Amino acid sequence: MSVLEIHDLHVSVETEQGKIDILKGVDLTVNEGEIHAIMGPNGSGKSTLAYTIAGHPKYHVERGSIKLDGNEMTDLPVDERARAGLFLAMQYPVEIPGVAVTNFLRTAKTALDGEAPALRGWTKDVREAMKNLRMDSSFAQRNVNEGFSGGEKKRHEILQLELLKPKFAILDETDSGLDVDALKIVAEGVNRAKAETGLGLLLITHYTRILRYIQPDFVHVFVDGRVAENGGPELADRLEAEGYDRFLTETSVG
Ligand code: ADP
Ligand code: MG
Ligand code: MG
C-alpha cells in the first residue's frame, strides 16, 4: 500500500523583492487509489504545493516533510522523485522545441525504468493510449506542446500519466479551459489510470465541474498557504454554492 505524506510543509520562494513565504504548514496524506481534490482561490499556493512536491528547485522547503512510502523526497532532484513514482501535470505545460511527442515519451519511460521499453509493446501501448484519448496518430510526430491547443496540452499530460504509470499524480488545473467533451476524455484517462495502477491523485481545481467525472474521496479547501478545511465530496458542493468568502474572512480576522 503506497502512501504520500505531507507534514507541516513550509515553503518559500526567492523573488526580486526578497524571500516570500507561500506555504505555511500543509498537512495532507494521500493513500494509494485515493482521489483528493484541492480547491482554493487564486494565489493561495496550490501550484506552489504542486511544484514543491514534484521538486521544482525554485521552491525552498523551510520546514516539514514530503514522504513517499516513508522515504523523504524533499532533498531529491526532480528526476529521482519521478523515479520514486511522483508525477506532475503542470498548470502551464512547457514547449520542448525539436522534440517529438513519441521521442519524448520513450525517453521519459526509459529514464524512469532505467532501460528502454521493448519497442513492439511500447509502440502498441502508445497507440492504444492515444486512441483512448481520441488523439490523432499524427500527434505523435509533433513537437511537445509546440502550437498545441489548450485541450491538446492537457491531453498530452494525461497521455504521459497513462504511459508512465506513476504511483501518485498531481493534476494542476488540468480541467481549466477544457470543453465538456475534452473534460470527459481527460477524466476517463485519469479513472483508467486509477483502476489499472491504483494511482493516488491530488486534483487541484477551481471548479466542481471536473468532480462530476472524477469523484473525489476527500476535498480540501486551500487558503493562504494551508489547508483551511477538510471534508468529503459534499464540501465541493458547498464551495460551489458559497464560494471561498467564509474562509477568506476567517483568515483575515484570525
Ligand atoms: P495558486 O496556484 O493557488 O493560484 P500559486 O502557488 O501560483 O497560487 O501562488 C501563490 C502565491 O505565491 C502568489 O501570490 C504568487 O504570486 C506567489 N508565487 C508563486 N510562485 C512564485 C514565484 N516563482 N515567484 C514569485 N512569487 C511566486
Ligand atoms: Mg492560479
Ligand atoms: Mg495555480
From TrEMBL:
CDD domains per record: ABC_FeS_Assembly
Top-rank taxon: Bacteria
Family: Belongs to the ABC transporter superfamily. Ycf16 family.
Keywords, alphabetical: ATP-binding, Nucleotide-binding
InterPro entries: AAA+_ATPase, ABC_transporter-like_ATP-bd, FeS-cluster_ATPase_SufC, P-loop_NTPase
Pfam families cross-referenced by the UniProt entry: ABC_tran (PF00005)
GO molecular function, one term: ATP hydrolysis activity
SUPFAM superfamilies, A to Z: P-loop containing nucleoside triphosphate hydrolases
Residue ranges of every copy of the ABC transporter domain listed in the record: 4-249
Keyword hit for Nucleotide-binding: yes
Protein name: Fe-S cluster assembly ATPase SufC
Keyword ATP-binding: yes
